[in-house]
Amino acid sequence: MMSSTRSMPTTAPARLAPAGIKPWVLSVRAASEDSSSSTSSSSLAQSTRRSILGLFAAGVTVGAVAQKALADARSIKLDGPPPPSGGKPGTLLSDEARDLDLPLKERFYIQPLSVEQAAARAKESAKEILEVKKLIDKKAWPYVQNDLRSKASYLRYDLNTVISSKPKDQKKPLKTLTSKLFDTLDNLDYAARSKDAPKAEKYYAETVSALNDVISKLG
């Protein structure tokens, strides 16, 4: 009895696509993705070109404006630096106080005056010093100190101006009276700082007497 043998196929069967998905759908999707990527790259390139062109245009505009400004610029003649003190009108008072080459005694912030004007301002300062009596009565000690120190600085400066103009035989007695006056003012200032009303009254009375002695010599 002869047995018949059936030959097996030698080639593998073709691979089928998953159920429900057609091969042409995959191809379309891949093509769509490639198209989107190409479009994005193209848009990015165009945006970059526009940015570069914009920067170039801005640079050209700025360069043109700068060239026009340079063309319109006018030369300005500069003089040399002014003298350290009083090189320009109205600057002497501020310059003197900052001029380190000047002697310290000459570097005052107070406006220098003629002898007659200094004497008049000294008398005015004396009157204002006497007005601190109202503040002493109120025991407004900080205000007493402020007024004394402010007016005394002007008074000292102006008295020195007047004394320097006096003959030699009149300078010494006037300096003595002035020294006594400012010692008394210092005592009054200390009494105000200590808030000592009795001593403030005492030294105020002495200040009045010393001021009268000095002012009477000014003429």
Name the features:
single chain; 219 residues; mainly alpha; Four Helix Bundle (Hemerythrin (Met), subunit A); 0% strand; elongated
Q: What fraction strand?
A: under 5%
Which sheet architecture does the biggest sheet show?
none
Number of strands: 0
> How far is the N terminus from the C terminus?
170 Å
Structural shape: elongated
Poorly predicted runs: 1-14, 16-31
The helix/strand series, from N terminus to C terminus, equals: HHHHHHH
Number of helices: 7
Average of the residue pLDDT scores: 76
- Structural class computed from helices and strand pairing: mainly alpha
Please give the CATH architecture of the domain at 113-215. Up-down Bundle
Relevant CATH superfamily of the domain at 113-215: Oxygen-evolving enhancer protein 3 (PsbQ), four-helix up-down bundle
Helix content: 55-70%
Write down the CATH topology of the domain at 113-215.
Four Helix Bundle (Hemerythrin (Met), subunit A)
Q: Mind telling me the C-alpha Rg?
A: 49 Å
Q: Provide the CATH top-level class of the domain at 113-215.
A: Mainly Alpha
